[in-house]
Amino acid sequence: MPDADTKPHIDALTGAESDAEVAEQLARFFETVSSAFSRNTERALRADLRVFLAWCQQDGMVAAPARANTLIAFIDDMGSSRAPATVRRYVSSIATLHKTLRLPNPADSTAVKLALQRMYRKRGRRQTQVTGLTWPLRNRLIKAAGKRLIDARNRALLAVAYDTLLRRSELVSLDVSDLVEEADGSATLLVRTSKTDPEGAGAMLFLARDTVRIVKIWLGRSGTAEGRLFRSVRKDGSVGERLPPSQVPRIYKSMALRAGLPADTVDALAGHSTRVGPVQDMIACGIELPAILQAGRWKSARMVQRYGERLLARRSGAAQLAARQQR
Fold this sequence. Notes:
The protein is mainly alpha-helical. The protein is 56% helix and 4% strand. A three-stranded antiparallel sheet has the order 1-2-3. A hairpin with a 5-residue loop joins strand 1 and strand 2. The N and C termini lie far apart (65 Å).
């Protein structure tokens, strides 16, 4: 069913003649996506459609079936204040709504595609890169953490995130039983589902010995023997049942503040920082691309190239030529 924030905007979807019919279709749409997509994708889809529905309601536009001219106006308006990648995601969510309801999809229009190209030419496609939590930063944050129970949790969370390159939703979904310690003190970690593995084929990842020691300290102090591996810690020191994904980047930022990092560095940290940083470290260490792709569970090199573009530029043909020319 539509959530509380979306329901007030249902009337913006159609004209008066088919309000009830499309409201019913919209209810089926949200019921369908609640089980077809990951929680993060569903959350983003709902948020994107709320933006579009509110915009249509404000300007007296029909949102479904939306005309190409409506979507073009929306792109032009949003493109003046939102990041191009955000606007493109809005369009993708609107297209998903129309496809699911079997309505003519305005995103298929050539005019809409040209509107997106016009936005890209004006604003560019380049996205802002978050600060990577590289090995030196990882160690600095862990060493600066305090002695409280919540600090033990934060150290374990950061150490696991660095070794596994897990997304924040994947981190908070881990169970204690997913971790299996090996004879040499390292461990394997089973990731049961992910953004790129919604059907739950699962993936086995590696944890280094020092990370395992840090995790065992957290588990011992918190008394966690089963259930979620990472949990919330209340002000009185009691342990909750689960940790919301939104807390992960806040944990990184709080650890960075405690470590005395500059404000601009703290602001640039995000949930993806523990995916960006290890990739940069792997490239710097000369690790081959297939191994990096396996570590991050990527099917193409696009994100690796984006995360490590500065390091890769220094290894380009031009850089190698300049080195041989001793200049």
